[in-house]
Amino acid sequence: MANLTRFTIDPISGCWSWTGALNNRGYAVVSDGKGGSMLGHRAAWEEKNGPIPDGAQIDHVCHNTDQDCPGGATCKHRCCINPAHLEAVTQSTNTRRAIRSRRPRTHCAKGHKMTEENTIIYERKHGRVERICRECKLAAQRATYRRRLERQGVPRQRRSRYDVA
Predict the structure, then answer these.
(1) Which of 63, 130, 150, 153 is 20–30 Å from 89 (CA)?
(2) pLDDT for 134
(3) Coil, strand, or helix at residue 129?
(4) What pLDDT score was predicted for residue 103?
(5) Tell me, what's the pLDDT at 137?
(6) Are residues 119 and 75 in the same domain?
(7) What pLDDT, on the 0 to 100 scale, is given for residue 102?
(8) What is the reported pLDDT for 59?
(9) Residue 35: per-residue pLDDT
(10) Which residues of the chain have pLDDT under 50?
């Protein structure tokens, strides 16, 4: 049985925010009591409800209703271990909820505002529509350009204004 006592309660959202170890994606990591580890929200759900049904994923319902959450690794809901905020759902339901909750976002995962000027809308194959932060895309393009110049051996002083460190 996992020790799930290291959390603080958010008085507004009711989230039980894990204060112990987090993985690189922002999810709580707890000891499974057998020398291994597991995700905290899964441990909390199992402690209250028993084993997770085959084929089910544990969804953070608190995330789906927070329109201001930027999502990604900075999402404050990923470390929530409140069993009342967790639901066992199929992968397709979890994915559908995640996509639906991303549409109204006001900020990207890095915190940039998703204004009309800063948002690129792509229509992918099969009609899938995706919103991308223009500022993040430009930063990624600059990094790619900088790496290419470095590989080509172009001296730093000869690089263009787009070579932003």
Answers:
(1) 130
(2) 95
(3) strand
(4) 55
(5) 95
(6) no
(7) 61
(8) 93
(9) 87
(10) none
Q: What pLDDT sits at residue 73? A: 67
Interatomic CA distance for residues 25 and 23, integer angstroms: 5
Tell me what pLDDT residue 54 has. Answer: 94
Please indicate, yes or no, whether residues 132 and 71 belong to a single structural domain of this protein: no
Tell me how far the alpha carbon of residue 102 is from its chain's centroid. 11
d(CA 80, CA 66): 13
Q: State how many domains the chain has.
A: 2
Are both 89 and 150 inside the same structural domain? no
From the list 99, 96, 39, the residue with the least C-alpha distance to 71 is 99
Cα–Cα nearest to 62, from 19, 95, 13, 99: 13
- Read off the tokens for 72: 């990604």
Angstrom distance (rounded) from CA 161 to CA 83: 51
- How many beta carbons lie within 10 A of that of residue 160, not counting itself? 11
The residues, any chain, with a CB within 8 Å of residue 43's CB and separated by 6 or more, are 2, 4, 30, 32, 81
Per-residue model confidence (pLDDT) at position 38:
93
Contacts of 66 (CB under 8 A, 6+ apart): 13, 77
> Domain residues for 141?
106-165
Strand, helix or coil for residue 164: coil
